Amino acid sequence: MSAVNDTNFNSAVFLLSGIPGQEDVHLWISVPFCLMYVISIVGNSIILFVIKIDPSLHEPRYIFLSMLAVTDLGLSIVTMPTILGIFLFNSREISLSACFAQLFFIHSLAKFESSVLLLMAFDRFIAICNPLRYASILTPQRIAKMGLVFVLRAVVIIFPLPFVLKRFRYCRDNVLSHSYCLHQEVMKMACSDITVNTIYGLSTAVLTVGLDLLLIFLSYVMILKTMLNIASQVECLRALNTCISHICAVLLFYIPVIGLAVTHRFGNSSSHSLPMVLGYFNLLVPPLINPIVYGVKSKHLRERIIRVFVKGQRKTSRAPANPPWRKIPSRPQIWRSAKP
What we know:
The longest helix has about 35 residues, at about 95-130. This protein has a single domain (about 10-300), classed as Rhopdopsin 7-helix transmembrane proteins (Up-down Bundle), CATH 1.20.1070. The chain is about 75% helix and about 0% strand. By secondary structure, the chain is an all-alpha fold. One of its GO terms (biological process) is cellular response to lipid.
């Protein structure tokens, strides 16, 4: 009996879902998805490239932005094969091992992005509330240590989930409501007791994403209190302008994450439209919008991006003064003295 169960487990697959009822136009729907992925990958790659080659951007604010770009780039790469596979090739099947690997990277990167947004809020808090100690507090060594701690936190928290899911038996239809794998949905496909997974998933969400959001809120309360004490209205608006990009990134990330968690745990199982929309918004929109928002709002970064591409265009369009195929006849040099 055990051998039969193992065989059923090893041969089992999950079926991913695209947009129900729109299977005939999936090929046309793939066009905006492809554009979104291209813009996300190119935009975040440009930000990483410009920050790397420009020494003037090696500041804490832009180092945190590069962390955010790496995370968004990772989320795009992890979800792209399954989402485009459904809409382009109608490939819905995914093996259990591939599904567990995908959900591990999705949840790990999402946890780390939440941590990066917290670090960016801390950066704005120090820059506005304690600007004289900004350089001494956010040193490169300290930034590297904080980034490493949050990476380890995300990996350690999510690492047990694939192994726990692998021990379950899946005897249902195994049809997922998303184009990718999520832990809160995969565990419902199991024919085993998932109480431990439910408690563990809820606890980790509260202690990571929930705690990060609370600390971000408290940091902005302190920032707002400091800005209200600033006498000059111009300086207050200038300080607020430096936070707009981060506020947009926070809203784009946390609103769909919270909405998706609530609908998966307390929503009606018969309605899949809201979780589907929130799922696509959660993983596709932030990597698309973040580089655009930061590129538009950050004047210094925008100028560096324009300078890099304009300089590169000038180099490629400028022809050599004396092409090798053109021979200039030599002329005798005429020397003239300054005075006759």
